[in-house]
């Protein structure tokens, strides 16, 4: 089920509220046009439902739309990029 992913550019994260909890993917800027996608978290109750993939996809679509590159520091992001070759050319 597609979720409404919220991009909080001030807090440098993509997140989705899940009841009293949140799932999130955080990032930082290492250079002007390079994002380090560094951390993904999904509460245990909500794991294995594709939420992490949706967060990563939202982040990578942001990278693509801005003409940026990304560093997959988070293993979840790295695994997603391996499974989706359309984003590999954006990897730094």
From TrEMBL:
One Pfam short name: Acetyltransf_CG
Protein species of origin: Nibribacter koreensis
InterPro entries from the UniProt entry: Acyl_CoA_acyltransferase, Gcn5-rel_NAT, GNAT_YJDJ
Alphabetized Gene3D superfamilies for the sequence: 3.40.630.30
PROSITE patterns: GNAT_YJDJ (PS51729)
Protein name (record): GNAT family N-acetyltransferase
N-acetyltransferase domain: residues covered: 6-92
């Amino acid at each position: 089920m597609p979720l409404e992913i919220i991009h909080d550019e001030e807090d440098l994260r993509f997140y989705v509220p899940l009841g009293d909890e949140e799932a999130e993917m955080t990032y930082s800027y290492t250079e002007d046009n390079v994002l380090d996608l560094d951390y993904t978290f999904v509460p245990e109750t909500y794991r294995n439902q594709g939420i992490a993939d949706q967060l990563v996809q939202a982040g990578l679509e942001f990278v693509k739309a801005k003409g940026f590159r990304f560093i997959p520091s988070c293993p979840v992001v790295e695994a997603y990029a391996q499974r989706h070759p359309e984003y590999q050319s954006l990897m730094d």
